[in-house]
Amino acid sequence: MGELFERVVVVGSGTMGHGIAQVVAASGRSAIMVDTSTEVVEAGLGKIRENLDKGVERGKVSAEERDATLGRLSVSADLAGACAGAALVIEAVPEDLGLKRRIFEIVDGAAPAGAVLASNTSSMSITAMGSWTSRPERVIGLHFFNPVHIMSLLEIVRGELTGAQTVADCRALAASLGKEAIVVLDSPGFATSRLGIAIAMEAIRMLQEGVGSAEDIDKAMELGYRFPMGPLKLTDLVGLDVRLAITEHLYAELGTDTFRPPQLLKRMVMAGKLGKKSGEGFYNWRRG
Q1: What DSSP element (H or E) covers 249?
Q2: What is the pLDDT of residues 196-228, one digit of tens each?
Q3: 136 — phi, psi (to 5°)?
């Protein structure tokens, strides 16, 4: 592995946070996962154990690799304390600008001067995050994809003041994690969210207009364009509320009708139809 980012702190133990911590530990690094309480972060660790156990059952991971990965993982509810010796801190909390700012300010004050501070945000400004710190040249976006231990892409987002060495180090990190990296400039939605949300919003408008059923619109993209999953099913998995928040952000920043939230999406979110996590979205997940 070498000496690059030997000690990594992941802030947040939810869907993305625990996945990032897992791949970091699997790469041979020490990974500390931090969340608001011991109970919350232990739950995230439990999900990592489940993932690794499934990998062993399927022959993708050896029992020795599973045990070694778990041995390199630790958890904490003390953010400042965990960051004291970190070489890299990756923020993976919900897309709440105020929350992210509070975390970056704490991390900037606690992490060593040379540490890289990264965000897993899918749409928010890395340049803004850099401005909250004393080290904007060491602030970068590391946008992973769910499930992190399976998806091969890592979108590296360069803020206006992100240094070339920081970008180079994160490219090397991506390769060591077994990821294919793309590097994009800091702009609303970056590359992946901007394209993905544009397709999803058009699919929702088509459903709203009665162009086709959810199943047929998804099948058009799966079979016609080889998408592994249709845009409506993917929106159900991500969460309709999450996608509404992102498209509202993009609409405010870019001002194009492409990102104007469809009325159908707003009505469904108001009704609590958030996708798989609520049991119903564009599909009924209660009956599979």
Answers
A1: helix 240-254
A2: 999 999 999 999 999 999 999 999 999 999 999
A3: -60, -25
Give pLDDT < 70 ranges for the chain.
1-3, 288
Query: Whole-angstrom Cα distance, residue 110 to residue 172?
Result: 25
Grouping H, G, I as helix, E, B as strand and the rest as coil, residue 186 is coil
Task: Confirm if 110 and 83 have CB atoms less than 8 A apart.
Answer: yes
pLDDT at 288: 63
* Token pair 């599973």: residue: 66
8: left (phi over 0), alpha (psi -120 to 50) or beta: beta
Residue 232 near residue 204, CB atoms below 8 Å: yes
Q: At what angle do helices 240-254 and 231-238 cross, to 10 degrees?
A: 100
C-alpha span between 248 and 266 (Å, rounded): 10
* Six token digits for residue 131: 């401005």
Going along the chain from its start, the domains and CATH numbers come out as 7-185 (3.40.50.720), 195-277 (1.10.1040.10)
Tokens of 234: 């993917």
Report the C-alpha gap between 158 and 142 in whole angstroms.
Answer: 9
End-to-end CA distance of the chain: 42
In this structure, are residues 86 and 80 in contact, taking their beta carbons and an 8 Å threshold? Answer: no
Retrieve residue 80's tokens.
């400042």
10 Å CB burial of residue 161 (0-12, 13-18, 19+) is middle
Task: For residue 225, count other CB atoms closer than 10 A to its CB.
Answer: 9
The per-residue pLDDT for 2 is 47
